[in-house]
Amino acid sequence: MTKPIPVKLEINGKRHELLIEPRVTLLDALREHVGLTGSKKGCDQGQCGACTVHVDGERVLSCLTLAAQVEGRAVTTTTMTKTKGGVVWNASVARMRGSSSSPP
Ligand code: FES
Predict the structure, then answer these.
(1) In ligand 1, which atom is closest to the CA atom of 43?
(2) DSSP single-letter state for residue 25
(3) Whether the model pTM is above 0.85
(4) If you average pLDDT over every residue of the chain, what do you get?
(5) Which of ligand 1's atoms lies nearest the C-alpha of 44?
(6) Domain 5-97 belongs to what topology?
(7) Is pLDDT above 60 for 19?
(8) Confidence of residue 1 (pLDDT cuts 50, 70, 90)
(9) pLDDT-based confidence at 81, cuts 50/70/90?
(10) What are the extents of the domains in the chain?
């Protein structure tokens, strides 16, 4: 077992300080350490895209990215939110686009 290291992440505009092993992927950090389960673990091999997040506005496969690699960068995840009409909308992406409530 590798000694855990402190990693500071900014996720959806909120700072998180984690104590994790250096080999922890961004996907596992998001899902297992921060509790954000919007990004899914599909193939875990960089082929399906289910784990896609944005890092400084660029698409990144979080299953192939170490959490420590994105320290100090802005991570935006898929955060599903139900609207009044029952439509599921990605609130984080809406904020990135400058929208407040409804999908395009
Ligand atoms: S889980 Fe399939 S690309 Fe990351």
Answers:
(1) 2
(2) B
(3) no
(4) 84
(5) 1
(6) Ubiquitin-like (UB roll) (3.10.20)
(7) yes
(8) confident
(9) very low
(10) 5-97
* Ligand 1, CB cutoff 6 Å, lining residues: 41-44, 46-51, 61, 63
Q: Measuring from atom 3 of ligand 1, which residue has the nearest CA?
A: 46
- Residue 78's pLDDT is 79
Higher pLDDT, 13 or 82: 13
| Listed residue (99, 88, 89, 91) closest to 13, CA to CA | 91
Residues 6 or more apart in contact with residue 58 via CB below 8 angstroms: none
The 8-class DSSP code of residue 33 comes to I
Q: Give the DSSP per-residue string, 39-89.
A: S--SSSSSSS-TTEEEETTEEEEGGGSBGGGGTTSEEE---EEE-TTS-EE
Q: Which residues contact 35 (CB under 8 A, 6 or more apart)?
A: none
| CA atoms of 13 and 29, how far apart (whole Å) | 16
Token representation of residue 53: 């997040």
